[in-house]
Amino acid sequence: MQLERCTLQGDYDQSRTKVLHMSLNPTSVAKQRLREDRDRLQEECERLQGLLLALERGGSVPTDLESVTGLPSSKEVTELRKQVESAELKNQRLKEVFQTKIQEFRKACYTLTGYQVDVTTAGQYRLTSQYAEHKTDCLVFKASGPSGCKMQLLETEFSRSVPELIELHLLRQDSIPAFLSALTLELFSRQTTA
Questions:
Q1: pLDDT digits (tens, 9 = 90+) for 135-177
Q2: For the chain, what percent of residues have pLDDT higher than 70?
Q3: Cα of 60 vs its chain's centroid, Å
Q4: Which residues are CB-neighbours of 178 under 8 A, at least 6 positions away?
Q5: 10 Å Cβ neighbour count for 169?
Q6: Distance between CA 116 and CA 103 in Å, rounded?
Q7: CA-CA distance, 194 to 192, in Å (whole number)?
């Protein structure tokens, strides 16, 4: 029993057994790899501790650590901030120009057609004539069909006051421009004859 235990623990009779050691011993190779990995990880740990200390002090990333961490240098960060500020300023200017052009376009449409067009909700447009007798006199159109290419007149108090024009131009002729033109002429004649 004791002989079995000794054999299992690796004991042997040196007079009768010869032990050969392999030149490329897998255990030795594994131990060497472990040592190299440990040394590499230790070096990386020291570099990261240096980075942490530098950042805690509020300083910039040391140049020897920039390539290791993959973080941009403070010079690059400053340059990127300048680029962002420049892009934001350009975006703000574009918004201002766009707003100005929108107002110009709206005024031109109002002057040329005699109608102020306002978007009330998605796909709904309120048209108010410059010749309207009351500020509440307006027409509401709703875009329908694929890509909103078809317009439908919604009933309003004002639209109920012009049933003849609706019947003739929208129902028979299916022409919104003709309807709006006829309505403009009628409202204009009401103002000039009154």
A1: 899 999 999 877 767 899 999 999 999 999 999 999 999 999 9
A2: 86
A3: 31
A4: 169
A5: 20
A6: 11
A7: 6
